[in-house]
Write a structure and sequence with these properties.
Layout (H helix, E strand, L loop, with lengths): L1 H17 L2 H31 L3 H39 L1 H28 L1 H8 L5 H13 L1 H19 L3 H6 L3 H13 L3 H20 L10 H39 L6 H8 L1 H27 L3 H28 L1 H9 L6 H15 L2 H16 L3 H26 L1 H24 L8 H4 L1
């Protein structure tokens, strides 16, 4: 009788959680973005069939990390600040003032990106000597050449991320969610037509990003026009935008170091490890971004509203139940994906230059990556709860602790198990970060604050 009552209570609680508005909103967002994620994965299968696992893809993937790191640090911080400032200006001063702000903010960021790129290219050989320490000189030279060819992508991708921020500010969520499909479509078409040529792959990536730029700014074309008065009125907001971006950049810098650390360790392992890890990470990364994106986008407004209404205790109880549910869901999804990893890799990648031996290697690496899902979902929920409390300093300190700890775990496990240990280190580090952020989330803050004062 007791067990039956317990099962009934658990089933009732689970039904209430599943029917909760936050869960329904998360499911809707995940469904919208899953189409683009699936298309991006098909693109990776096409690229795998053309290039296989080897030095060519190693050089391309490392070049993407090298060119993407400085822009990612700046633009991820800039997008957060831009959304806030753009919404405030749009509501308080109208369309023309918001247009002047967006144009001025983009010009300011392009200037900063150019200055950073010059320094980055000057130091490129020293950077590659550290990150690519295990690569042969010829492969390292190829990485350097790829980085220079990716410079147009560096600018276009940065502009696009700011444009996506403007679309989100204007509540154009459908457009912002579907436009990224342009890049995988272009890459698949050009690679299928021209074959395994790195110059074609880089050109296809740049062309797809350029199509994204056109689709993003077509409805925002008035924002690119010059309005002298609007530009003058936007200067204080632009100053706040630049200062806010520089203030938030250390946090994104810390988080952005993880892929650099992984590439650095992988370059010292056996030939083809970087490209094998790249293929193996595609499915886990797709599931991770799809699920954590759905959780992050939908749960933060809910937590913020509940905390503002002085409903902290019930919000904490909901947070505990929500973390338990998403952790369990992540574990089930990870288990199913692990069990089907071998057949999936053979179906998705094993063709052309991608051999059966490559498939076995990638499947083993993919299984190690997949176990990050439970921790990633729990950690995202905890991060959003901490953010809703306004405790940005705690978030930064948590990241400061987690990144070197995860890097150390990856290195120690890679010494013992090679590439599989490197991949599993991410999963272990993600689980530890979830525990740390859940502890931070459940600590009672002294008082809520804003990003300007707390970060």
């Amino acid at each position: 009788m007791f067990l039956r009552s317990l099962r009934g209570s658990a089933a009732s609680a689970l039904q209430r959680m599943v029917r909760h508005p936050v869960m329904r909103a998360a499911g809707g967002f995940a469904a919208l973005t899953s189409v683009v994620k699936a298309l991006a994965f098909v693109k990776e299968a096409v690229v795998a069939g053309a290039f296989g696992v080897g030095s060519s893809m190693d050089s391309y993937l490392m070049a993407l990390v090298v060119i993407g790191f400085p822009s990612g640090v700046l633009i991820n911080a800039a997008q957060t600040v831009l959304i806030r400032e753009y919404v405030q200006i749009l509501e308080a001063q109208g369309e023309r003032a918001a247009a002047g702000f967006l144009r001025s903010a983009m010009l300011a960021m392009l200037a900063v990106l150019t200055a950073v790129l010059i320094v980055w290219l000057v130091a490129l050989q020293a950077i590659l000597a550290v990150i690519g320490h295990g690569l042969a000189p010829g492969v390292r030279s190829l990485v350097s050449a790829n980085v220079y060819q990716l410079v147009p992508y560096y600018y276009l991708n940065s502009i696009n991320l700011l444009g996506y921020g403007a679309l989100q500010s204007r509540k154009a969520f459908l457009r912002a969610g579907l436009i990224p499909a342009a890049t995988p479509l272009c890459v698949m078409a050009l690679v299928a037509a021209a074959g395994a040529d790195l110059r074609v792959l880089i050109s296809a990536l740049t062309a797809g990003t350029m199509v994204e730029t056109a689709l993003i700014f077509l409805p925002l074309k008035d924002s690119l026009r010059l309005f002298p008065r609007a530009a003058a009125r936007a200067r204080p907001a632009v100053r706040e935008f630049v200062l806010g971006t520089l203030f938030l950049a250390p946090g994104t810098l810390i988080s952005g170091l993880l892929p650099v650390i992984e590439q650095t360790i992988a370059s010292g392992l056996r030939h083809g490890t970087i490209s094998a890890l790249g293929y193996a990470a595609k499915l886990p990364a797709t599931l991770n971004s799809l699920l954590t994106g759905a959780v992050g986008v939908t749960v933060l407004p809910y937590f913020a509203r509940r905390l503002l209404s002085d409903d902290a205790e019930s919000c904490r109880r909901f947070f505990i139940r929500y973390v338990a549910l998403v952790t369990l869901s992540g574990a089930v999804i990870a288990l199913v994906a692990v069990l089907g990893s071998g057949p999936f890799v053979r179906l998705a990648f094993q063709r052309g230059q991608f051999s059966e031996q490559d498939a076995l290697l990638v499947a083993s690496l993919q299984r190690a990556y997949l176990w990050q899902l439970p921790g990633a979902l729990a950690g995202m929920a905890a991060l959003r709860f901490v953010a809703a409390q306004g405790r940005y300093r705690a978030m930064s300190l948590g990241n400061l602790l987690i990144v070197p700890l995860t890097g150390l775990l990856q290195w120690l496990l890679s010494v013992r198990w090679g590439g599989v240990g490197l991949a599993f280190g991410i999963s272990v580090g993600t689980a530890l970060s979830a525990v740390i952020f859940c502890v931070l989330a459940l600590r009672r803050p002294s008082a809520p604050s804003t990003w300007r004062t707390s970060q």
